[in-house]
Structures are given as C-alpha cells and as structure tokens.
Design goal:
There is one protein chain. The chain is mainly alpha-helical. The protein folds into three domains: 5-59, no CATH class; 63-168, no CATH class; 209-362, hpI Integrase, Chain A (Orthogonal Bundle). The chain contains 15 helices and seven strands. It has helices at residues 5-25, 37-59, 63-82, 105-117, 122-141, 147-154, 161-170, 209-215, 223-236, 242-246, 281-294, 328-341, 349-362, 367-374, 379-388; strands at residues 179-183, 192-196, 253-254, 259-263, 274-278, 307-309, 321-325. The chain has a three-stranded antiparallel beta sheet, with no helix packed on it. Strands 1-2 form a two-stranded antiparallel ribbon. It has a two-stranded antiparallel sheet with strand order 6-7. Helix 2 runs antiparallel to helix 5 and helix 4 (105-117) packs parallel to helix 6. 31% of the residues are buried.
C-alpha cells in the first residue's frame, strides 16, 4: 500500500495532542493498574482514526466511484427528508461521520422499500444499499453508530436474482424497455432514428412555471433566503447539475458582463467540460445582491459560490453565510426542503434540470443548442426533450 507521509504525520500529531490532554485530565486514573498510558493512547488513536476514516476511504477510490457513492447517499438523504426526518446542517453522509448518528437498521431497511416504491431497478437498489451499509460500517468504527446497531444494519440484505424477479412481478411496472425518437439534425438531409433506455423512475417530478417562479423568489431578507434564490436560479434557469453548482466559485461569476463560467465534472476530458452562460435576468439580479452585499469579501477570490448557512430561527434571526461550501448532498437536501415548503412532495436537483430542458425545448431550441447549454455529449438526451415538445415539426418541409 502507498504510504501518505502527510496523513501519517497528521495522525501522529493528533494522537500526541489527544494523549497529552487525556493524561492531564486523568492523572488520578493512571494510578489504577488497569489504566496505562498505552490504554489511553489507544483510545485517543481510535478517536483520531474514526474522525478521519471517511477521508481515508475516499482517498483510495476512483473519481467515478466517489460520484456514484455521492448519488447513492444523496438518495438516502432524500429518503429521510421524504420520511419527515429533519437533517442537521452537517448531515453530509459522504464526508461527515457524525451525520450517521441515529441511523438504525430499521431506517436502512426502510430505504430499500422506499427505493422500490420509487420504481428503481432491483440492481440499483442492491448497489445503493451496499453503499449505505459500507458508510454505516465506517460510522461504527468512528464510534458514531453503536456496534450492535451496526451489526443489525449489515443484516439488511438486497434482493437475489430470483427474489428480484418475484418483486418485479408483484409491483406496478415503472420502467419502459426502450423509447424511440427521430429527428433531423441541423444542416443534415437525413432524419435520424434512435432508441434509448428509459429513466429508472417512471417520470421526473413535474414543475410548472408558477412553482418554478416561487422557488426562485427571495422568501425573506435573510442571507439564507438570498442564497436559496441563487441556488434555485442556477438549477431552474440554467439547468446546472448539482455537481456543477457544488464546485462553482464566486470568481466564476462576472457581474459586469452578466456571465458565469463553470466546470462540468461529468464530462471532464471533452469539449463540454468548461462552459459559459449568459445569466438570465432573474439570476443576474439575485447574484448581484448576494455577492455585493452578503457574500464574505475575504472569500471572493477563492471561495465557493453557494455557501452553507447557520440555522434560520422563527424570529428571523440567523441564516448567516458560513465560510464552507454547500456540498452536493446538502445541496440536494436543501432543494427537497424548499420544494416541500411549497407542497411539492418530491423534488431533486435533477428535476430542476429537467424543467429547464423542457422549457427550452418548448421555446424552440434545437438539439445542438440544448447539447451546448446542458453539456450533453450525446444527441439522444436532447432528442428526448425535443421530441416531447414536438419541436421536431419545425424541421419538416
């Protein structure tokens, strides 16, 4: 295994500091035959290792695995929100062990049932359950989840091949085998006919223009409300992916030119990996106030654009911007929460992207234009929206 000198040095310093603190506070206990410096140092080492266990695990994983886990844990957070369980500001299930405090085997078992009801394929359910069990087991090592509870969580099993077939035979059909579209590319004489697999869920949560307008509206005078409005404009007006919003920097926003430049991790290595959008009027308005009046000046050069906030109290106090970014998982949790406040049962960042693409297709944007705006490397995804809006009729004649 490749050694990481920086990590080892940091771990050594952490253990030494914790040992010194423990020895100073428990001088009397050291007189007991059962409590030795080695015992105390071992306990301190366990605590230090537990606090860094998630980071160390992620260091060894490929970028694609990390992204897949992020989506799995994002769904786990959506399930908890859908179940009416409020999540703390630090509930980042991929990076924060403390987020797992209170998770039980019953909650994990309920996650599999929720995925079934949402129409996910059996293979997808098994994969996402495996991710949750892996991180829960690390939370046990971190001392956040009780060991006995951790053992029970590991007993929550996925579906065997035959068991999955039996389940699918009993539940309503939520997937189509294929969907076929045809369109005529710009500048081409021949029409193109393609078939693609359908989405895993029966359909996205559908938003109308009125709900979208309410989601992008500033709800109160708090910094949190302005942050939320900026976030929803990025998702609904510009159709950015959650991963793109999470890493967007304040320096990527050019207020004088009314433009923003952003990186697309999902299509890294292609011509689509960097993109520039002319900001919509609504986005430009809220982004201008957010950056010029609320955003910490010390973070303008290198800080993330969408920041976490303190809790907003009922009396209107709080909701102040923090120096840390709003992670992809926390971002998705926030979108779901804002949707619930408007009576939308289930809404995700991807639903917002779906709304933006649908609206642009109805306005007459073609396949090539949609591909450039959304960063799609294949025309098939764009065709789905164009076909649904009957925009392909414009090419006839």
């Amino acid at each position: 295994m490749t050694q990481n000198p920086d990590f080892d040095e940091e771990m050594s310093v952490t253990i030494n500091v914790r040992r010194d603190l423990v020895l100073g506070n428990r001088g009397r206990e050291l007189q007991s035959p059962g409590v030795t410096p080695l015992v105390i140092a071992g306990q301190a080492a366990n605590q230090a290792a537990g606090e860094s266990i998630f980071q160390r695990y992620l260091q060894e994983k490929s970028p694609n695995t990390i992204k897949r886990h992020a989506r799995d844990l994002e769904l786990f957070a959506e399930y908890l929100i859908d179940a009416g369980i409020p999540l703390l500001n630090s509930a980042d299930f991929q990076y924060e062990p403390f987020a797992w405090q209170g998770v039980t085997w019953g909650i994990v078992a309920g996650f599999t049932q929720w995925l079934l009801q949402e129409g996910y394929a059996i293979a997808s359910i098994n994969a996402r359950l495996s991710t949750v069990r892996t991180y829960a087991q690390m939370a046990v090592k971190a001392g956040v989840v009780d060991r006995q509870e951790g053992l029970l969580i590991q007993t929550v099993k996925g579906f065997s091949r035959q068991g999955g077939l039996n389940v699918d035979a009993l539940r309503p059909q939520t997937r189509k085998e294929t969907a076929t579209y045809d369109y005529k590319p710009e500048g081409k004489k021949q029409r193109v006919v393609v078939s693609r697999g359908s989405t895993k869920k029966a359909q996205a949560t559908i938003l109308d223009d009125d709900l979208a307008e309410q989601l992008t509206r500033v709800q109160n005078s708090s910094p949190q409300a302005w942050r939320d409005a900026v976030l929803m404009c990025l998702l609904l007006d510009h159709g950015l992916r959650a991963s793109e919003v999470a890493i967007l920097r304040a320096s990527n926003i050019n207020l004088s030119r009314g433009e923003m430049r952003f990186f697309r991790p999902k299509v890294k290595g292609t011509s689509q990996e960097w993109a520039s959008h002319k900001m919509t009027p609504g986005m430009a308005e809220v982004a201008s106030y957010y950056l010029e009046h609320l955003y910490p000046p010390t973070l303008r050069a290198e800080g993330f654009f969408i920041l976490g906030t303190t809790r907003l109290l009922k009396n209107g106090e709080g909701g102040q911007l923090l120096g840390e970014s709003l992670s992809r998982i926390r971002l998705s949790e926030r979108v779901a929460y804002l949707g619930k406040k408007l009576g939308i049962t289930k809404i995700s960042a991807h639903d917002c992207r779906h709304y933006c693409a649908t609206k642009m297709a109805r306005l007459g944007y073609g396949v090539d234009e949609l591909m450039a705006w959304f960063g799609w490397t294949s025309a098939q995804t764009a065709m789905r929206y164009v076909a649904a809006a009957d925009v392909q009729k414009r090419y006839k004649g």
